[in-house]
Design brief:
The protein has 395 residues and is an alpha/beta fold. The chain has helices at residues 8-21, 102-119, 146-158, 176-188, 213-221, 238-242, 250-257, 261-299, 306-343, 346-351; strands at 28-40, 43-49, 54-59, 74-84, 89-99, 136-141, 163-168, 194-199, 226-230, 245-246, 356-359, 362-364, 375-380, 383-388. It has 4 domains: 8-100, OB fold (Dihydrolipoamide Acetyltransferase, E2P) (Beta Barrel); 134-257, 3-Layer(aba) Sandwich (Rossmann fold), CATH 3.40.50.2300; 261-348; 355-388, no CATH class. The chain is 41% helix and 23% strand. β13 and β14 form a beta hairpin.
Length: 395
């Protein structure tokens, strides 16, 4: 025969050398469905499959596995191909196994968290302090979800005068992180005092857009203080670590930015009454001390000096009358102060039947700001009425 011939060993070694020499095939990630997983003498044998192919895999030192897959699990394996010459078998030698989806997302979360932390984006000295007097709040969230309604309800219950500006954004799915970044940047240009980035609870996959680098950097670059209110109390995202303040829930974020006017008025009233009582007690004690001193002086004089004490008693009597008048005047002034505080309480104004009218979360103060057919919100003491303009009458 004129053709060159090689032995089985030569061919097998040649194939093995090809796999060993191809660096692109070493230490690579492959995902697929687990089939036939079993452990024998400390070594795991299984296959990865999809609709069109099957890949035999082997994992030595299987007792070192942090995660043991089950039949049908979707996994991601890292390793390199190998051709066993003596047995004539090809296999993929696995170094690590992770659950596909959650495992990959969590790994990406940890890697991004470590990167941004190393850059100093989580540093405490970079955190901004919330303003003392917050009048307008920007909110980046879905316009149709329960989150924005919870924020509005909590804020209006505590402080009906607080303005809320919504930037409607996607909070899940493809492109969600882009709209969230746009919302942060747009609201950062306005006159809001603080920005809330909010979303309800969900799985790691549901919250994945809040674990992206572009949202983290948008929060870090914002000039306005940002509160992250994503998920439930046990959920943590990259946005939470970068934000100036983390709220365990969207409702908690609303409480952080809204002063409880009712509680504030109660506190002022209590303090005023306490001052009034303390002042009254002080003046009464002073009056008693003066009269006690007078009695002591009188008792030390003889009966023959009684006529000389009469002018002193008259002076002391007039002094006591002046003390009584001062007590009454101070009580009157303090009561006037309490009445003024109560009169300026927004909740008291609403109790009297006055309302505030809003269109698209902005207060309406003139008939020129609305048109026939438009809907407006009428804010009452215990809730909000939606109304449609049927007719306008100007002055």
């Amino acid at each position: 025969m004129s053709e060159n011939m090689i032995s089985v060993t030569q061919f097998s070694n040649y194939v093995k050398q090809i796999f060993n020499a191809e660096e692109l095939l070493h230490n690579i990630l492959i995902y697929g469905e687990v089939s036939g997983f079993n452990i024998s003498r400390g070594t795991a044998y299984f296959s990865l499959k999809d609709e069109d192919a099957l890949l035999p895999c082997v994992k030595f030192s299987a007792d070192e596995l942090d995660y043991t897959p089950k039949e049908g699990d979707m996994v991601v394996v890292r390793g390199s191909p190998n051709y066993y010459v003596k047995g004539g078998k090809f296999s993929f030698v696995v170094s690590t196994i992770q659950a596909y989806g959650l495992g990959m997302l969590y790994q990406q979360f940890l890697e991004l968290k470590a990167k941004l932390e190393a850059e100093g984006l989580f540093a405490k000295e970079k955190k901004q302090v919330l303003p003392q007097n917050i009048k307008r709040v920007g909110v980046v969230t879905s316009e149709t979800g329960a989150v924005i309604q919870d924020i509005i309800d909590v804020s209006r219950r505590r402080n009906p005068m607080l303005d809320i500006v919504l930037y409607p954004a996607k909070v899940q799915g493809i492109g969600a992180e882009v709209t969230i970044v746009q919302g942060i940047k747009e609201l950062d240009k306005t006159n809001v005092d603080v920005i809330i980035v909010a979303r309800g609870g969900g799985s790691l996959e549901d919250l994945s857009c809040f674990n992206t680098e572009i949202i983290a950097r948008a929060i870090a670059e914002a000039k306005k203080p940002i509160i992250s209110a994503v998920g439930h109390e046990t959920d943590f995202t990259i946005a939470d670590f970068v934000a100036d303040l983390r709220a365990p829930t969207p409702s908690a974020a609303a409480e952080l930015v809204s002063i409880d006017l009712g509680a504030l008025v109660d506190k002022l009233t209590f303090t005023t009454k306490k001052i009034c009582t303390s002042t009254q007690n002080y003046l009464v004690n002073l009056k008693e001390n003066v009269f006690n001193l007078a009695d002591m002086l009188c008792n030390n004089f003889t009966i023959y000096q009684q006529d000389k004490m009469q002018p002193i008693r008259e002076i002391l009597l007039r002094l006591g009358q002046k003390v009584d008048n001062n007590i009454m005047n101070n009580e009157h002034r303090l009561q006037l102060l309490v009445n003024k505080i109560e009169a300026k309480n927004p909740l008291s104004i609403l109790k009297m039947g006055y309302v505030t009218v809003e269109k698209h979360n902005k207060r309406v103060t003139s008939t020129q700001e609305v048109q026939v057919g438009e809907q407006v919100s009428i804010n009452l003491l215990d809730g909000i009425l939606l109304s449609e303009i049927k007719e306008k009458k100007g002055k």
